[in-house]
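Whiteboard transcription, Tuesday session. T.W. wrote the structure tokens on the left side:
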């Protein structure tokens, strides 16, 4: 036993040290609730959005033929400094946690949304959500990635494009079929079927363009002016 005693003592000490949880392990605990899911004051008020729109560069889209989805990253990423970034949660889960009502989150991992309901802003449909079941909900880039590319994102760094693709200010949980119909269309080519959302759509769309200094085409600017004109004066 004389030789075994020091070995046993060392093993016990190692086991006890492994059970000590006072110091968090970096990167293992999600910062749910500690990272904002929207920028302060976003979307901008109608008057602010109108002023922002007046300052946007007006030009026809460029380099449309070089656009690829992979230019903005192949997958959702938490490794950005965009809104919602570096909180330990998948971007899509952040969108669901922000936009769904009747939310039920995971016990072990609060990032995961187990169930909820979406009042789709584009159509007014009530869409249920359940984890691990086929869903009619998708995350839409309000100013689509292709539209952002044509408006100036073609000149960004890969990291800047990754931030845009995962910025919660740019994203909305919406009806999947409606999102397919919207595709990469700009505001002059597509508007939400639900007219009651036109004001907020114009505010969000313009706010995104201003935040990322993206240009607008002449018809796009006119369409945004019309959307913002539906806001209560």
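and on the right, the sequence the group agreed on:
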């Amino acid at each position: 036993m004389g030789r075994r005693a020091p070995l046993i003592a060392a093993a016990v000490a190692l086991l006890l040290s492994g059970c000590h949880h006072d110091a968090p392990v970096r990167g293992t605990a999600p910062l749910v609730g500690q990272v904002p899911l929207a920028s302060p004051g976003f979307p901008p008020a109608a008057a602010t959005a109108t002023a922002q729109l007046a300052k946007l560069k007006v030009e026809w889209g460029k380099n449309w033929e070089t656009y690829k989805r992979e230019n903005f990253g192949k997958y959702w990423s938490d490794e950005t400094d965009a809104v919602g970034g570096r909180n330990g949660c998948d971007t899509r889960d952040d969108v669901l946690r922000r936009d769904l009502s009747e939310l039920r989150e995971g016990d072990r991992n609060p990032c995961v949304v187990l169930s909820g309901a979406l009042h789709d802003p584009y159509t007014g449909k009530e869409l249920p959500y359940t984890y691990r079941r086929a869903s009619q909900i998708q995350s839409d880039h309000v100013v689509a990635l292709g539209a952002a590319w044509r408006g100036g994102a073609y000149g960004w760094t890969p990291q800047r494009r990754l931030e845009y693709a995962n910025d919660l200010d740019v994203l909305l949980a919406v009806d999947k079929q409606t999102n397919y119909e919207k595709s990469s269309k700009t505001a002059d080519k597509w508007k939400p079927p639900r007219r009651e959302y036109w004001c907020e759509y114009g505010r969000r769309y313009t706010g995104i363009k201003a935040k990322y200094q993206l240009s607008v085409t002449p018809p796009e600017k006119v369409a945004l002016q019309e959307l913002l004109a539906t806001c209560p004066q």
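Someone added at the bottom: The beta strands are 101-105, 113-119, 126-130, 137-141, 171-175.
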